[in-house]
Specification:
The chain is α+β, with helices and mostly antiparallel strands. It is built from nine helices and 15 strands. The two termini are 31 Å apart.
Length: 326
């Protein structure tokens, strides 16, 4: 397996809007393994025979059932609980650490919640709020604490990754690995800058477009006007050290219309020469909170890691055998 440098960012965290600060967050990802070793058919055909979005919706539902969601408030508390030494290790400056520990952070997050309470129902619906949550926003007096408004006003995100297929081909003497990953916000987060997703995999595997897709699809939701979504596909390629990444704006303007990125899902198809019974695939979502765009490129720098996101596939009976040449 690839040797990944010491983990610096270990959990997802959210901070308030601070214009002069730079940092980012990374989110824990729920890993789910699906053993397909006993299947005699070509499991890689899932890239064309199944609807990718339907698979994504299924995985999100499973992850939510297993408690794979993170709320902005919980992440904020986790960040604020860190002492100065830990925040320094994560890459924060003294000024940033002082601001994180400042009592103004909660006030800034609350200010955004109270601003949203003044928006019309259509905009709030497009942001992801349901009827009950909109009513709760309307009832705010301005005296509430962040803890009181967090359950209905702040966003939660769910992430997952899964190895869908692990197959060996006699014809090509190659082992193929198919992995799915994705994320979904239940409503628009308070911070909306440039986010990053990253994938990492076992050494000696390489992206292989000859048998499947290497692509990520961002699902954008229109912020104003009639409900509307737009999907944007982006190809993934190996960037460095068995990693791939994709960066995107959380609140872009597409064709003159303002959107926000509600969710995304992707597929990586990898292969390596020879038979490999063990494979590892990792996915990480990094939510930019203060203005720096996180990266998975080497050197790893400040903290984009795959901790809490590893899905290690070790089938007891070895990989499934299949001839792609047939």
């Amino acid at each position: 397996y690839i040797e990944i440098m010491e983990v610096i960012m270990k959990k997802f965290f959210i901070c308030c809007l601070l214009f002069v600060m730079v940092a980012y967050t990374s989110l824990p990802v729920l890993a789910v393994t699906r053993n397909m070793s006993d299947e005699s058919t070509d499991a890689l055909s899932l890239t064309t025979n199944e609807d990718r979005y339907a698979r994504h919706e299924t995985m999100i539902a499973e992850a939510q059932e297993l408690g794979g969601s993170t709320n902005e408030y919980d992440a904020y508390l986790e960040l604020k609980s860190c002492d100065s030494d830990e925040l320094t290790d994560r890459g924060y400056t003294k000024e940033e650490i002082a601001a994180i520990h400042s009592s103004t952070l909660e006030g800034k997050m609350l200010a955004e919640v109270f601003r949203r309470a003044t928006l019309d129902d259509e905009t709030l619906t497009n942001m992801g709020y349901n009827t009950q949550e909109i009513s709760q926003l309307r009832a705010l007096t301005g005296d509430e604490t962040l803890a009181e408004v967090a359950p209905f006003a702040l966003a939660s995100v769910t992430c997952y990754n899964t190895i869908t297929s692990h197959t060996y081909s006699n014809s090509y003497d190659k082992t193929y690995l198919l992995a799915d990953f994705g994320w979904e916000w239940d409503k628009m987060p308070v911070i909306k800058r440039t986010d990053t997703i990253g994938c990492g995999w076992s050494e000696d595997y390489y992206p292989d477009n000859s048998v499947g897709d290497n692509v990520v699809t961002n699902v954008y939701r229109q912020l104003n006007g009639a409900p509307n979504t737009k999907e944007v596909d982006t190809g993934l390629y190996e960037k460095q050290l068995e990693t791939a990444e994709h960066q995107f704006e959380m609140q872009p303007t597409l064709a003159g219309i303002e959107y926000w990125c509600e969710s995304g899902y992707g597929t990586m198809t990898l292969s390596q020469a020879g038979l490999d019974n063990n494979a590892k695939f990792s996915f990480k979502y990094a939510h930019d909170t203060m203005g720096i765009t996180p990266s998975v490129s080497a050197p790893w720098g400040i903290g984009f890691s795959f901790d809490h996101a590893e899905d290690i596939f070790t089938p007891a009976a070895g990989v499934a055998y299949s001839d792609f040449a047939d």
